[in-house]
Design goal:
Elements (H helix, E strand, L loop, with lengths): L1 H21 L4 H4 L11 E5 L5 E6 L8 E6 L6 E2 L2 H11 L2 E2 L5 E6 L2 E6 L5 E3 L7 E7 L4 E6 L2 E6 L5 E3 L2 E3 L13 H13 L1 H19 L8 E3 L4 E7 L5 E8 L8 E4 L8 E4 L10 E8 L4 E5 L26 E3 L3 E2 L6 E7 L4 E8 L4 E9 L15 E2 L4 E6 L6 E6 L5 E3 L7 E6 L5 E6 L8 E6 L6 E2 L6 E6 L5 E8 L2 E9 L7 E2 L7 H4 L7 E6 L5 E7 L10 E5 L16 H12 L3 E5 L9 H4 L9 H16 L7 E6 L1 H12 L6 E5 L10 H8 L6 H7 L11 E7 L7 H14 L4 E6 L9 H19 L2
Parallel strand pairs: 13-14, 40-41, 40-42, 42-43, 43-44, 44-45
Antiparallel strand pairs: 1-2, 2-3, 3-4, 5-6, 6-7, 7-8, 9-10, 10-11, 11-12, 15-16, 16-19, 17-18, 19-20, 21-23, 22-23, 23-24, 24-25, 26-27, 27-28, 28-29, 30-31, 31-32, 32-33, 34-35, 35-36, 36-37, 38-39, 39-41
Length: about 775
């Protein structure tokens, strides 16, 4: 009897777990605050002595993350004290001297110097003004910092503070135009002609000015006038002689949009000032070098860059004289001792990137590497100043010249360029070792959907793989390079933190284990199959495939279209689309087959895949969805008449194009926060892909769903946040008006009054996805 009572007690204790295991997934459950899933660490970094790893974490599920730490000896995470956190974070952003024996950083607007061996800290400034950007300069004899947009140095030996620049708003006084009207000039001349007392007073004033002009002048800094432009990119050469800076002139005539916020604390509608639209006037850049030794200012000119007047292919028939395109010059990247400098120059139409050697004494540029892309320049390691020096002669950089982003070196003395990596994969991150004998690189060489960490000799050769688990690794290297701390995830396991010796074959040690809550673990989350299917042009299209059990299979399917365009989701690690991942598990439980496609335009597959949508969004990116639907029908027994499609942002755009231009392939679609007319989106993103609406009207017309709304046949759900500052609510309103005028049925719009582009409230997520699920069940399960 006693044993029976114990057994009953055990069952009662375990019954909640059994209940959780048996409970099916619901939209209400998976769209709760993401804290229910668990808490993953984030933002790993090391202490300056390399003994401690810090990271953001929230195992207590507080309103915000806290800073935690482990040491190499004690692996149990400990929360840091609130008083310590800002100071710890400040050191992370500091800069080392060349010998890496000292660190300089700013904390709460003042400059501090840390001696790494002794741990002694020296406070350099204590001012009401804010200092920033502290670094070593003048070959490590001074500390440089910025205050009120000007550069200052503090000399280590003497403590002398010297101001190096005097940037002044407006124009030089002598250059300022005479503001007197002709009438005022006449009256002034008349007064001096008729009134002797005024004439005498002016003569004395002119004599005093002439006398003062002849007197010795105190030594003063040259004033560098900004006129009506904005200052940026201020930097200095290692020896302190050359100061580089960039001026930006804002465009005139650009018309910014507004986004009304209707649900506000005040009760009044408030207008949020937002962006301009593609094709609006763009600003211009100018770059300069201030030679402190000669007290001269030289422009860095781009009008003579090789190919600066080249027209894009789509405009080759233009008969007018080609003009130099606008370009932006980066701050110089100097070798450690200041022997050489290079700049990265980007054309404003983003079809060219030049790496140029800079002669700072003359402002002259010499070509090292030019990458031309008739679509647009992009890819990992591009446009991020991901350039550096191995020694005083050898530069390293990344380029997509072969079709994949790879690592190169260039010797400025011999002019020899060398590829250190090659193949049909991407180098996604690069960090030189402290001794400059190796690079540490992150690549997807094993599989496009994995991220693995390697050590590569600077001379090239075979890379040594250091990480081993299938999935993705986000790595932070210890200062002494003996250890790595990293975040790791798999497709059905959220990110956790690991610690490992920095060598091949070392055993990973798991540090955190809170990414999956007990409730989350009760469900057997699927590991989707990462497959590829053949598109109509014989391209192999990557995708995630979710297959239901044969007993539950209902013959219907849903295709998910990820957002952003240039993003990867058919990979082997935890997705940023974790809500959609859970929704796909729910759909699969209900018997749906789900396909999640990395269509043309997605990240991770090289240049040709990235630019496959140039001048025609809704072209190959859409036919990849259609071919995916046919693959499901042919290979997985899906009824071709019962296939739905959904996605948000770019995914919403593709959904609209699918429902309007291939209506016989999709019975239902849910388009969320969708671009409906690319002429109304922002300039930076859209002009890369479609050029400008008034120079490439064909590209915009064939890429914008609003022109094809008459093709709607199936059932369409549209959802949009009313405070969307990215894809404006106006976009979907214009499309609704078009559908009304066309007399279309079978469509509806759900609006979310407090939501921006990325929803933040669980109630909005829940409402939206209940509508999506209802649409697919009502239409596809008939």
């Amino acid at each position: 009897m006693k044993q029976l009572l114990l057994s009953l007690a055990s069952l009662l204790l375990l019954s909640p777990v059994y209940a959780q295991q048996a409970a099916p997934l619901t939209v209400e459950k998976i769209m709760r605050d993401p804290k229910w899933i668990g808490t993953s660490p984030d933002n790993l970094f090391w202490s300056t002595d390399g003994q401690t790893v810090y990271f953001n974490w929230n195992p207590e599920k507080s309103p915000a993350d806290s800073l935690y730490a482990i040491t190499l000896k004690k692996h149990t995470p400990v929360k840091t004290l609130p008083a310590e956190r800002l100071h710890i974070q400040a050191k992370r952003s500091g800069n080392y001297n060349l010998a890496r024996t000292q660190l300089v950083y700013t904390y709460q607007g003042d400059v501090f110097l840390l001696d790494l061996a002794s741990g002694k800290e020296t406070r350099i400034t204590r001012t009401a003004e804010i200092e920033s950007g502290a670094a070593f300069a003048f070959l490590d004899t001074r500390i440089l910092f910025q205050r009120s947009r000007n550069l200052f140095t503090w000399e280590l030996k003497t403590g002398l503070i010297e101001q190096l620049t005097d940037f002044v708003s407006g124009s030089k006084p002598a250059d300022r135009p005479e503001r007197s009207t002709p009438q005022e000039k006449f009256l002034k001349a008349q007064q001096l002609e008729l009134m002797d007392v005024l004439k005498d007073k002016k003569a004395k004033s002119d004599a005093a000015t002439a006398y003062n002009d002849d007197m010795p002048k105190p030594e003063r800094l040259r004033s560098l006038y900004l006129e009506d432009k904005s200052l940026g990119g201020v930097d200095i050469s290692p020896d302190g002689r050359f100061i580089s800076y960039r001026l930006y002139r804002s465009p005139s005539g650009d018309n910014n949009t507004i986004v009304p916020a209707f649900v506000t604390e005040s009760g009044y509608t408030q207008d949020i000032r937002s962006r301009s639209k593609v094709g609006a006037p763009q600003g211009s850049f100018e770059s300069f070098i201030y030679d402190r030794e000669k007290d001269t200012v030289l422009p860095v000119k781009t009008a003579d860059l090789p190919g600066i007047t080249d027209r894009p292919d789509y405009a080759r028939n233009d008969t007018g004289k080609a003009k130099p395109r606008g370009a932006m010059v980066s701050a110089p990247i100097w070798s450690d001792k200041g022997t050489h400098a290079v700049v990265e120059v980007s054309s404003q139409d983003n079809k060219d990137r030049w790496i140029m050697q800079l002669d700072a004494a003359t402002g002259k540029l010499k070509l090292i590497d030019r990458q031309r892309d008739e679509a647009w320049i992009g890819g990992p390691g591009i446009h991020s100043r991901n350039i550096g020096w191995i020694d005083e002669q050898t530069l390293w950089f990344q380029s997509e010249a072969t079709g994949y982003s790879h690592l190169y070196t260039y010797n400025v003395s011999t002019g020899k360029k060398k590829a250190l990596t090659s193949g049909q994969y991407e180098v996604q991150d690069v960090k030189p070792a402290q001794d400059k004998k190796h690079f540490y690189i992150l690549t997807n060489a094993v599989h496009p959907g994995e991220k693995q960490y390697y050590r590569l000799p600077v001379s090239g050769g075979k890379a040594e793989r250091i990480t081993s688990m299938t999935g993705a690794h986000t790595v932070s290297l210890s200062p002494d390079e003996k250890w790595i701390a990293y975040l790791y995830s798999a497709s059905n396991k959220p990110w956790e933190m690991y610690l490992q010796e920095n060598k091949a074959g070392a055993k990973p040690m798991q540090i955190t284990d809170k990414a999956q809550s007990p409730e989350f673990r009760t469900y057997p989350w699927r590991e989707p199959q990462v497959i590829s299917f053949t598109a109509r042009d014989n391209a192999k299209v990557p995708a995630r495939l979710y297959l239901p059990e044969a007993s539950r299979k209902n013959g219907a399917a849903v295709i998910f279209v990820h957002g952003a365009g240039y993003l990867q989701n058919a990979h082997k690690f935890w997705s940023n689309y974790f809500r959609e991942y859970m929704f796909h598990n729910l759909l699969t439980d209900l018997g749906f087959t789900v396909l999640d496609i990395d269509y043309r335009g997605s990240a991770g597959y090289g240049r040709d895949w990235r630019t496959g949508i140039y001048r025609h969004m809704g072209g190959k990116d859409l036919t990849d969805q259609v071919d995916g639907a046919r693959f499901l029908a042919q290979q997985h027994g899906v009824d071709p008449k019962r296939i739905g499609i959904y996605g948000g942002s770019y995914g919403g755009f593709i959904t609209l194009m699918a429902m309007f231009t291939t209506p016989d392939d999709f019975a239902a679609g849910a388009a969320l926060r969708s671009v409906t007319d690319w002429a109304h989106y922002n300039h930076g993103y859209t002009s890369n892909i479609l050029n400008e609406p008034y120079t490439d009207t064909l590209a915009y017309r064939r890429s914008s769903p609003i022109y094809f709304a008459d093709g709607l046949k199936g059932h369409l759900l549209m959802c949009h946040g009313m405070v969307d500052t990215n894809v404006h609510f106006q976009d979907i309103v214009r499309l609704c008006q078009r559908l009304i005028e066309l007399g279309k049925d079978n469509w509806e719009l759900a609006v979310y009054p407090v939501e921006d582009h990325g929803f933040t409230t669980p109630s909005s997520w829940t409402d939206e996805y209940k509508r999506i699920l209802g649409l697919f069940e009502d239409v596809l399960l008939k």
